[in-house]
């Protein structure tokens, strides 16, 4: 693995709040400069990642807090301050305009939020979208109609994270009111998660599961496993005994079992985001599985971002595979994996993004589609068909020699030394 802070002027030295991959090379970022930018990421012969600017999507009047490509790859949702929420469409350029390459056109503006949109999650079929807002609520949108379907209300403070189950069966919202809510297909509340039942000194008690509003981040971005078997919740806390001090953690819940997390991953600083690699890997036969919670016939990888570091985990092992620290000068805001699982991008309030690049086979051998369970074959096959169509369009832009934004002085950059990796 090689990690690097990329020394470009990502968003006019403003904080970078979010990022996402369209495919294995095309990266979108958003930040405090009110713009959404498209980039091409490649790996040098040394294995280090390199970035090239492609395009800017300008439409927002205020900071953009979250960007997410649809599972189909043809749509991009952008949410920001003041309730701004817009959809961009990827279009095939006309023959006479083929030299212009990748083209994104603004499709519609979704109007319904009056306050800042902090997170976004797509439905698995790309037909709908859910947005989280500091209005203490979420809205589920019909993307084709450009209208809100229903408002999800009940939280008593800012909603800072949302996740849509890969099977479409539920939506989870996470708020700084110290609760997570699970919403069913008819937008009814399936569960409200606030406490875990514990037994300290043989006396039943309740333990808070999440940080309150004093957490120094506006983002609590949860993530579902690609197979929908479990959910990772950031901003968690865990207290082993009544006498022990609470520790920061990411909490894992099995789908449909919300009374208590199945396990937790401790962290020095609060966890603000979780993101799964979209690739399923073969299990390592020479590694004994010491994580009893996961006995699937494949391995899944995920990254957890705290305020100042990133840890990469494997469901076959309890300890992290890798740790990225000392890469940024300010708080981390978001994570994104490329669709081939070879790149992991990290954004930060310091105005820069870092990327960890993995050599082929370094993370393991991807599972062939025919060896997956039948229900996963259908899900993964749909994704494989949708993404290459978008990727083919993106490749047209890769050969362009578009200007790169001005690079700030080296003194403004965090030191991108290998010492940040452990």
Automatic annotation (TrEMBL):
What's the chief localization of this chain?
nucleus
InterPro entries referenced in this protein's UniProt entry, alphabetically: Beta-prop_CAF1B_HIR1, PTHR15271, WD40/YVTN_repeat-like_dom_sf, WD40_repeat_dom_sf, WD40_rpt
Ranges for the CAF1B/HIR1 beta-propeller domain?
A: 1-363
Q: Does the keyword Repeat apply?
A: yes
GO biological process terms, semicolon-separated: DNA repair; DNA replication-dependent chromatin assembly; nucleosome assembly
One family from Pfam that matches here is Beta-prop_CAF1B_HIR1
Q: Where are the WD repeats?
A: 23-41, 57-98, 110-151, 152-183
Q: Name one GO cellular component term.
A: CAF-1 complex
**Where located?**
Nucleus
Q: Which SMART domains match?
A: WD40 (SM00320)
Keywords on this record?
Chromatin regulator, DNA damage, DNA repair, Nucleus, Repeat, WD repeat
What family does this chain come from, according to its entry?
Answer: Belongs to the WD repeat HIR1 family.
What protein is this chain from?
CAF1B/HIR1 beta-propeller domain-containing protein
What organism is this sequence from? Answer: Symbiochloris irregularis
């Amino acid at each position: 693995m090689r990690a690097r802070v990329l020394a470009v002027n990502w968003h006019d030295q403003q904080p970078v709040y979010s990022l996402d991959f369209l495919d294995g090379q095309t990266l979108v970022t958003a930040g405090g400069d009110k713009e959404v930018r498209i980039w091409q990421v490649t790996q040098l012969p040394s294995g280090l990642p390199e970035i090239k600017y492609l395009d800017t999507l300008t439409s927002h009047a205020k900071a953009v807090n979250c960007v997410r490509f649809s599972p189909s790859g043809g749509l991009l949702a952008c949410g920001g301050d003041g309730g701004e929420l817009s959809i961009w469409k990827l279009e095939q350029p006309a023959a006479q305009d083929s030299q212009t390459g990748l083209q994104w056109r603004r499709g519609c503006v979704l109007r319904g939020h009056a306050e800042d949109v902090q997170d976004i999650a797509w439905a698995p079929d790309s037909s709908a979208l859910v947005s989280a807002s500091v209005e203490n609520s979420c809205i589920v949108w019909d993307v084709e109609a450009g209208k809100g379907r229903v408002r999800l209300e009940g939280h008593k403070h800012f909603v800072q994270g949302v996740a849509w189950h890969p099977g479409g069966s539920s939506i989870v919202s996470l708020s700084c009111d110290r609760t997570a809510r699970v919403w069913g297909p008819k937008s009814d509340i399936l569960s409200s998660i606030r406490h875990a039942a514990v037994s300290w000194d043989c006396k039943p008690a309740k333990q808070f599961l999440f940080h309150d509003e004093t957490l120094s981040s506006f983002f609590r971005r949860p993530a579902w496993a690609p197979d929908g078997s479990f959910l990772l919740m950031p901003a968690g806390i865990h207290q082993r005994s009544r006498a022990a001090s609470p520790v920061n953690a990411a909490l894992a819940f099995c789908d449909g079992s919300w009374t208590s997390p199945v396990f937790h991953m401790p962290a020095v600083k609060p966890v603000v985001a979780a993101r799964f690699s979209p690739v399923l890997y073969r299990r390592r036969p020479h590694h004994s599985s010491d994580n009893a919670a996961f006995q699937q016939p494949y391995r899944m990888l995920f990254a957890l971002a705290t305020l100042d570091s990133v840890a990469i985990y494997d469901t076959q092992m309890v300890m992290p595979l890798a740790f990225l620290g000392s890469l940024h000068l300010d708080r981390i805001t978001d994570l994104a994996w490329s669709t081939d699982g070879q790149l992991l991008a990290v954004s930060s309030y310091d105005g820069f993004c870092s990327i960890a690049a993995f050599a082929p086979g370094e993370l393991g051998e991807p599972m062939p589609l025919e060896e997956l369970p039948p229900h996963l074959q259908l899900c993964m096959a749909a994704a494989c068909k949708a993404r290459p169509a978008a990727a083919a369009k993106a490749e047209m832009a890769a050969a362009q020699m578009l200007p790169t934004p001005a690079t700030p002085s080296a003194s403004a950059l965090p030191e991108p030394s290998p010492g940040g990796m452990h």
